[in-house]
Write a structure and sequence with these properties.
Blueprint lengths: L11 E5 L4 H13 L2 E6 L6 H6 L4 E3 L5 H5 L3 E4 L8 H8 L3 E4 H9 L3 E6 L4 H14 L5 E8 L4 E4 L5 E5 L14 E4 L13 H13 L6 E5 L3 H9 L5 E7 L5 E8 L5 E7 L2 E8 L4 H16 L4 H10 L8 E6 L2 E6 L4 H14 L5 E5 L4 H15 L4 E4 L16 H6 L8 E3 L3 H11 L5 E5 L7 H14 L1
Parallel strand pairs: 1-2, 1-4, 2-3, 4-5, 6-9, 6-10, 7-9, 10-11, 11-12, 12-13, 17-21, 18-19, 18-21, 19-20
Antiparallel strand pairs: 7-8, 13-14, 14-15, 16-17
Helix pairs in contact: 6-9, 6-10, 9-10, 11-12, 14-15
Length: 471
């Protein structure tokens, strides 16, 4: 019997927000460990399908009576739920242990040889790459990532080896609970402004995260990122730092990029200035070259051979909702991406341009959170200008309440005069589907963007285009 998780085995654990990417993965791990898992969420999500297969009871909605229904030893809540929610207060009143998701996940992570992937952008893709490389190399790691990995058809699993690969969330500072043996930081940007009032608050959090790395551990950093360079200049970081970026100046570098039309690319890999040969990726975009360098560096520190790393990177076809093809009708292609920050949108739109240089690009964007939109509406308008046409949906508030004067109109009004005609505000999904499909032309690339419910829209667009094509 594996004694690493004995503190969680046979416990009754109730998860509030169980339908989210992170919480659903934790539910799977706890179920595999041997805990009695239950959960609730405000809406039904696709992640619940895997939980239903495990016969994990789920209730739609959050109510205090769930505490009496399930009688948990531990109640776990996601960052989307305020800590004064009646269900949480009821648990406290009854003397039940109440924990944030990261507190429980870190109990699983910290007793293993943890590979923790943090950063404002690219966490899911990088942690997915590392997970796939380790799986294909026969390491059998424990995995907890933000998107479904196709070979294991889930976002989490309990492995037999000492290694665990996890995507660590900086949005609420909870990543400081983790003590990685290998810490990967893809970039540091000022996002989640509802939690971080200044950029210094962000770098303070990352500095604390680094300080919790295990002794003799490795810290893998992208030195092309301005935020990371700023942190390096202003904070003392203990630990063995491994750098990556473009060219031969870093421990791991990429040069001679070659983009393949229709998707994928290749580059030359160098290690401490020495040429290591060609790397081929099944995914596109310069940001994914950097993600693959981080994944290579982490896998190398795990002791995985060059040949196995190269095979894993070539086999990686992308994480769910990361420039994922939704469907096609004739020669109109529909893609979906999770990008919800201006920098992510720029990276995604630039990548699509490289994949399909001759095609018209139609972007459909759903802003995520009122606080982010209020802080970055001008940057969103600028990012969307890279598309030939942009449809903008109402803000998906997530757990936030509406803010006076903050709506998608801010993004529309911030568009430059010469681009205004390329933007269109849409009131709801039905109106948008009609507008997009009526405007669709042969050869178009239609791309849905955002972290909210927009991920369900692509299939509906494909269905409507199919209906129109059949007439």
């Amino acid at each position: 019997m594996d004694k690493r998780d004995i503190n969680l085995r046979n416990k009754s654990i109730h998860l509030m927000g169980i339908g989210g990417a992170g919480m659903s993965g934790l539910a799977i791990l706890l179920d595999q460990i041997g805990a009695k898992v239950s959960g609730c969420d405000a809406v039904r999500t696709s992640y619940m399908e895997h939980l239903n297969e495990r016969n994990i009871p789920i209730i739609i909605g959050h109510e205090a009576k769930h505490v009496d229904d399930f009688m948990p030893n531990i109640l776990v809540y996601s960052s989307a739920i305020p800590n004064d929610h009646p269900e949480i207060l009821k648990a406290w009143q009854q003397g039940i242990a109440v924990s944030r998701r990261a507190e429980v996940l870190s109990q699983i992570f910290n007793v293993r040889r943890g590979v923790g992937v943090a950063g404002t952008h690219g966490k899911t893709t990088t942690s997915s790459m590392i997970s796939l490389i380790a799986e294909m190399a026969g390491i059998d790691p424990t995995i907890a990532i933000g998107g479904e990995l196709e070979p294991i058809n889930t976002n989490a699993k309990l492995g037999e080896s000492d290694y665990m690969v996890a995507e660590l969330d900086e949005s609420d500072r909870s990543f400081v609970y983790f003590h990685p043996e290998i810490a990967v930081v893809t970039n540091i940007d000022w996002d989640h402004r509802d939690h971080y009032m200044t950029f210094k608050a962000v770098t303070d959090a990352f500095s604390e995260f680094f300080s919790h790395s295990k002794k003799e551990g490795k810290i893998i950093m992208c030195m092309e990122d301005e935020g990371i360079r700023k942190l390096r200049a202003e904070y003392e970081i203990s630990g063995d730092i491994v750098s990556y970026g473009w060219g031969r100046s870093w421990n791991w570098g990429a040069s001679e990029l070659c983009h393949f039309q229709g998707g994928g690319l290749s580059y030359r890999l160098c290690h401490n200035g020495e040429d290591m040969g060609q790397i081929e990726l099944g995914v596109s975009g310069e940001h994914n070259v950097l993600n693959s360098l981080a994944a290579y560096a982490a896998a190398y520190e795990m002791g995985i051979s060059h040949e196995d790393i190269v095979k894993g990177l070539k086999a990686f076809s992308g994480a769910k909702r990361r420039l994922q093809k939704t469907g096609e009708v004739g020669d109109i292609l529909v893609y979906d991406d999770y990008g919800h920050h201006p920098n992510e949108i720029v990276a995604t739109l630039s990548t699509v341009r490289l994949m399909f240089p001759e095609r018209r690009l139609v972007a459909i964007f759903q802003p995520h959170r009122f606080s982010r939109t209020a802080a970055l509406y001008k940057e969103f308008a600028g990012a969307l200008s890279l598309a030939d046409r942009a449809f903008i949906l109402p803000i998906y508030g997530s757990d936030e309440r509406p803010m006076e004067g903050v709506s998608s109109q801010l993004i529309f009004d911030a568009a430059s005069d010469d681009m205004r005609s390329h933007y269109e505000l849409s009131g709801n999904f039905d109106d948008l589907i009609s507008s997009v499909c009526q405007a669709a032309a042969s050869g178009d690339i239609i791309l849905t963007l955002g972290a909210g419910s927009v991920g369900t829209l692509g299939k509906k667009i494909v269905e409507r285009l199919g209906e129109l094509a059949a007439k």
